[in-house]
Recover the amino acids of this structure.
C-alpha cells in the first residue's frame, strides 16, 4: 500500500483567537509541528499543508517533511483549502488519491489510534463522540471527486456523505477558536496521545 495522503488545513486567518492557530505554542513546539509529528506515527504518510500567504514561510520552515501549499483565497472556506491540497496531490502523483485524511489545524482532538481506525474504512467517515461528529475527516472515492470539482465556497457537509465512526475520546470536540480554548489545548497536550 502506498503512502496515506493527509491534508492539514491551516489557511484560516484566526481572527477570533488573535494569533495564527498553526503557530500556537504548545509546550515549546507549535501546534502544526505537533500535528505533523503525530501523523508521522501512522507510518507512511504524505502530508500536504494548506496555508495562507502570511504563514507560508513559517509553515515551510517548521514542517520541512510536508508539502506546503498556498490557498490565496482562504476566506472562501475549507472546501477551497481541501481543493488546493487535492490539486497539489494531483500535480505530484498524476492522479487524485483514493483516500485522503483531512485534518483541520484547529481541531487537534484526535489520537493516532483514531486515524488508524479511520484509514481502515472504505467510505467517507468521521469519528463521533456523544453523538457529535469530530475530526479528522476521511474522504473516499467519488466524494473526493465531488469536492475537487465543486465551487470553493460550498460547505463540505453538502458534498460528502460521511458515515459515523463512534469513538470514546473525551477530547474529540476540542476546537481552538478563542483564547479561552488555549487552556483546554494545554490540558489536552498532557495526554500521552498528544
Amino acid at each position: 500500500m502506498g503512502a496515506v495522503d493527509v491534508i492539514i488545513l491551516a489557511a484560516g486567518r484566526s481572527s477570533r483567537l488573535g494569533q495564527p492557530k498553526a503557530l500556537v505554542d504548545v509546550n515549546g513546539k507549535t501546534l502544526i509541528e505537533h500535528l505533523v509529528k503525530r501523523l508521522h506515527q501512522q507510518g507512511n504518510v504524505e502530508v500536504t499543508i494548506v496555508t495562507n500567504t502570511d504563514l507560508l514561510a513559517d509553515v515551510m520552515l517548521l514542517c520541512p517533511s510536508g508539502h506546503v501549499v498556498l490557498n490565496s483565497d482562504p476566506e472562501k472556506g475549507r472546501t477551497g483549502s481541501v481543493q488546493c491540497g487535492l490539486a497539489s496531490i494531483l500535480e505530484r502523483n498524476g492522479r487524485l488519491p483514493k483516500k485522503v485524511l483531512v485534518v483541520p489545524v484547529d481541531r487537534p482532538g484526535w489520537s493516532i489510534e483514531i486515524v488508524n481506525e479511520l484509514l481502515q474504512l472504505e467510505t467517507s467517515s468521521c469519528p463521533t463522540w456523544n453523538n457529535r461528529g469530530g475530526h479528522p475527516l476521511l474522504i473516499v472515492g467519488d466524494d473526493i471527486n465531488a469536492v475537487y470539482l465543486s465551487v470553493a465556497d460550498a460547505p463540505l457537509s453538502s458534498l460528502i456523505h460521511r458515515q459515523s465512526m463512534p469513538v470514546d475520546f473525551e477530547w474529540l470536540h476540542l476546537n481552538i477558536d478563542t483564547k479561552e480554548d488555549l487552556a483546554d489545548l494545554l490540558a489536552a497536550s498532557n495526554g500521552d496521545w498528544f
